[in-house]
Amino acid sequence: MNIKATLMASAVILSPVAALAADLTIGFSQIGSESGWRAAETTVTKQEAEKRGITLKFADAQQKQENQIKAIRSFIAQGVDAILIAPVVATGWDEVLEEAQDAEIPVVLLDRTVDAPDDLYLTAVTSDLVHEGKVAGEWLVSEMGDSDCRIVELQGTTGSSPAIDRKTGFEQGIDGHANLEIVRSQTGDFTRSQGKVVMESFLKAEGGDSICALYAHNDDMAVGAIQAIKEAGLKPGEDIKIVAIDAVPDAHLAIAQGEMNATIELTPNMAGPALDALEAYLADGTLPPKWIQTESKLFTASDDNQSIYEMKKDLGY
Ligand code: AHR
Fold it and tell me: How far apart, in whole angstroms, are the C-alpha atoms of residue 211 and residue 253?
């Protein structure tokens, strides 16, 4: 299998084949466009809908939960057949999910989880967010051996499930290794610009020489931080090891250039399995599992990152 075929085949662990349902109208409440990964997810979702002849009503919430709730209410009022939600934060969804349930409109969560009873949505298509953080932590453990390492952490959006779970997972990954210590941890809101600003503040507060590694909850923040590290006269990937999550093209490029060390892949194709599940459910009531888990693959300098970068660019990621 070539790299492109492998990437596409490994995109999801479970992807039920469903019959095409004609004339479906589906509302998609997207968080915004904070990261390269998010933009890729939007692109792939639109492509998947078009491929299946589904009319997709798209609403960009500009990072605000209140905008998402408004959009979902509008989808309900329009009588859509189903709703996709990428929830910006984990809490505060019960009421609007109950409204969708009362209107008998199935809801599928994309890429993030919510703190709400699971009978309020049909299924959630997400990675194992804790596992991703754990893989990052374990990678750093194996990289550092017995050497002391002072780590700085760039967290995702406060209150979002990936920020909460990726932090927990990383702490599990380094647990029991007293030589590894998280000395600073702050949100960079999943954006490149905040990743840079917060990394600058870490470098100022700690002094560049005393920081051994950066763990960023997504690649965009890592890419912003790389800029800050360079501007501080240090070599990212060498003076400061960098591990992050998403495996967007720019992260593969940074690894190929020796400026980043590892990333854990999050497929932007959440819509494929989500629409498979919805089409089957709307066709004959087939119930999907409550969690459709996507794969989390670690990429390091031992992979052919230049080729993967080019491949993913071609796929529109
Ligand atoms: O919910 C997935 C996360 O949201 C991605 O890792 C991050 O890049 C995005 O903004």
Answer: 23
